[in-house]
Amino acid sequence: MNKTGIVIHREYTTRIRKPSFVVITLLMPVLFLAIVWGSMMMSPTDATSLPVATMTADLPSLQADVDTALGMIFTFLIYIFIMVYGAMVMQGVMEEKTNRIIEVMISSVRPFDLLLGKIIGISLVGLTQFVVWGAFFTLGFLLLSSSESWQFILALMLAISNIGEILLFFVAFFIGGYLLYASLFASIGAVTNSHEDTQQFLMPVTLIILFAFYVGMYSAQHPDGTLALWASLIPFTSPIVMMTRIAYGLPAWQWILSLVLLYAADGLMIGAAAKIYRTGILMYGKKPSLKEIIKWLKY
């Protein structure tokens, strides 16, 4: 196993063994299913539902609605993953720096391998959490669903016209967006020494992510608008915005250009983050200025 693989394994196994991870991973779906079950118990038992034949009578319209809903769901998932696990990367870098663990690790592992291993390892932790939640929700649905619910699911399955295409775009933009922002969050963790210091760097990043999310919601209603077009090409907003536009069918040049720009930005950001990380993780008690950070990028 190479050094990056060792770091990935360490990050992954260390975090999934934490009691907080186990509690959150298992408790959240249980609470959600309990709320759903309670709502079903308190709801009227004579609730009506449309038969499948009625629901699929206007199949093209239903297909458009379902594809749009999938795009918005995937947009929300990318937004949540970047915010939660990107911040976890930053927190991990800060913990290792403040505890001086990094001084021991850096003697045997290159900073780039350490940074890449941390980013990938934490992403695997997040994916594990999402898979467990998905399994719980699926099991809960199977146990709590009624015949009307199965009719509804059947109608939705008939209505999904391009789920494979949407899933491929989701995976591509999910990976690209996470790599971009995780590198940025790692850089913030490397140049700061406390949670108070992170605020001046974290606020602009958070605003960009929130802006992308709101533009994504806007793009669901105006997929051909100028704002939606440019936001789906700019790497810092495209992973979130593009998913809401994919369902409407886009010219090939738009999503090709968007992916090329996104992964080019990933390469530049990871390279810049590695340079900042290499110098910043060994600096203690001194908050670097913007001029000093720019100097680190030239090393």
Helix content: over 70%
Low-confidence stretches: 45-57
Which sheet architecture does the biggest sheet show? none
Order of helices and strands: HHHHHHHHHHHHH
Mean pLDDT: 79
Count of distinct structural domains: 1
Structural class given helices, strands, pairing? Answer: mainly alpha
The tally of strands reads 0
Question: Which strand-content bin applies to the residues?
Answer: under 5%
Over all CA atoms, what is the radius of gyration? Answer: 22 Å
Number of helices: 13
Molecular shape: globular
Oligomer: single chain
End-to-end span in angstroms?
29 Å
Explain briefly what this protein structure is.
The chain is an all-alpha fold. 81% of the residues lie in helices and 0% in strands. It has one domain.
Key features of this structure:
about 300 residues, mainly alpha, about 0% strand, 13 helices
Explained architecture:
- By secondary structure, this protein is mainly α.
- It has one domain.
- The protein is 81% helix and 0% strand.
- It contains 13 helices and no strands.
- The protein has helices at residues 3-16, 19-42, 52-55, 59-98, 101-105, 111-144, 147-159, 163-191, 195-221, 226-231, 238-246, 252-280, 290-297.
- Helix 4 (59-98) packs antiparallel against helix 9 (195-221) and helix 9 packs parallel to helix 11 (238-246).
- The two termini are 29 Å apart.
